[in-house]
User: What shape does this take?
Amino acid sequence: MSTSTTSAPPGTEDPSPARAAPRRGKRDPARTGWRRALRRDWQLYSLAILPLLFFLVFRYLPMIGNVIAFRRFEPGGSIFGEEWVGLRYVQMFLNDPTFWQVFRNTLWIGGLTLLFCFPVPIVLALLLNEVRRRSLKRFVQSVSYLPHFLSIVIVAGITMQMLASDGPVNHLLGWFGHEPIRFIQEPEWFRTIYVGSEIWQTAGWGTILYLAALTTIDEDLYEAARIDGANRWQQIWHVTLPGIRPTMVTLLILNIGAFMAVGFEKVLLLYNPLTYPTADVISTYVYRSGVESNSFSYAAAIGLFEAVIGLVLITSANQLSRRTVGTSLW
Assistant: This one.
């Protein structure tokens, strides 16, 4: 008995088995491209090792210590605390009137710093961009950048010497017949002193990013604006400011994220017990509670609360910026 088979014409074979079979040896293009880039530019990628180690050791690993905000910690004991106490320390600082005082001071100083220190570099960069004499422009840049390279200790020392009872400012006031003012000892002057010194120290350095952003604006846009009859102020409003808007928004989001982290070192160096009502902020209160009073768990709970607020602020600012102006960090 013989069986007959019908063979398909050449070139009409069913290709489905070939398609159904998995492809072997096919590499992911994205992974292959990443490996090729790593082999080609490994010298550049190696430069990121030290910064990554820095953030790992000094930023991420210390986060493990936040567990003592919910555990009773005793010096000399376990670094993770001795006993679980839950939200006890959170309830303690929420019921502490001193905490709410320093919380209000933090909001005041952080808000004033953001209100005055953020726009000053923008204005300074716009003014420097209008200067046509290179020698004058370089001189102003050098003078404005210099305070950034001074340590906070030096800046605080200069501020205290300038505002001392027998300092230059009070001597100047004496020439106009005014009685000496104890700037450093009077609480109502602290916020003005802090914000003023912050502007003096950071304004010049902040203009670097804006001046760099100004160089990326196409000159044809200015030419088109002049043809349309726009004066210099209109060119700044309709061409220059929109050109640096992404940089402005990015820095604004970062500043909002650091809203609660008011400069600890400068406040610690400038304030004293007489100015606690307006000068004491969360970071200095945490320092006194944790380091000076050995209440490490209580201080960790306050620090964790501050970090959560900062996270909420920067996330909200990023989302708001993305929906309103279309620019965000992520």
Remarks:
- The first helix runs from residue 16 to 20.
